[in-house]
Automatic annotation (TrEMBL):
Pfam families: ABC_tran (PF00005), BCA_ABC_TP_C (PF12399). Residues 11-244 form the ABC transporter domain. This is ABC transporter ATP-binding protein. It comes from Gordonia hydrophobica. InterPro entries: AAA+_ATPase, ABC_AA/LPS_Transport, ABC_transporter-like_ATP-bd, ABC_transporter-like_CS, BCA_ABC_TP_C, P-loop_NTPase. Keywords: ATP-binding, Nucleotide-binding, Transport.
Amino acid sequence: MTGDDRQVPLLELTDIAVHFGGVKAVDGVSLDLHQGRIYGIMGANGSGKSTLLGAITRLNPLTRGIMRFDGREFTTVRPHAVAHLGVARTFQTVRLIDDRTVRDNVQLGVDTVSRDRRDQLTSTVDEVMERVGVAAVARMRPSELSYGMQRRVEIARAIVACPRLLLLDEPTAGMNTAERDEVSELMRALQVEGFTQLLVEHDVPMMVDVCDYLFGMNQGELIAQGDPEAVVADEAVRESYLGKAAGNA
Ligand SMILES: Nc1ncnc2c1ncn2[C@@H]1O[C@H](COP(=O)(O)OP(=O)(O)OP(=O)(O)O)[C@@H](O)[C@H]1O
Ligand SMILES: [Mg+2]
């Protein structure tokens, strides 16, 4: 990341912590994300990955730390203000409104965008639904769709806001291999357009394939970071995660 290090990071976290009572879900994470790259976070169940995304989107209250977006501190803003900065996410558990159509759910992504950014949106709701493969089901309700399709609707809702930073929490959970490949392809296409992405996934080959840079997380802390192949091969990462994953398989 040598060249990028001289630029102001798009996202800069300094020593952030999220404690739930005695549970140190995130505990002293510092990281920089630079414009246009695809980052991944890998780590065992309960290592704090989703909580970290929740901290960035201000849904999980910080116990300590400082967060900056494009050089400006946003540590204490409200969640909608994070969306206005240009941060969008998908959730690990699908969160769609079931008494609205797929199209309405995707439209909700536009509604999170601040007024002054709204005319900068490059794709319409219909274009995004086409691109993510949900145009044919636009009039259906989320509950009528397979889990994989529901996840696509969530991705569409996130990217229609044309976010500067896209956070994806296990976007391919419940998808088959072909659908997973489509998500990887979509992420690469978004990268070409300049989107910065942070992916949480348990699919290690996908992470190595799609990410430029990986973070290894364990018990609320980052234990490794760097080139994906190196992080996957890292002994502490293997012990905390890959060993367990292999044991579960
Ligand atoms: N709202 C909450 N209240 C209390 N504890 C929480 C809360 N959210 C998460 N935790 C705890 O924080 C720790 C980290 O959870 P988190 O969901 O961030 O892990 P994760 O890395 O996303 O795991 P997974 O791979 O299973 O999704 C866990 O011990 C979890 O039980
Ligand atoms: Mg999680």
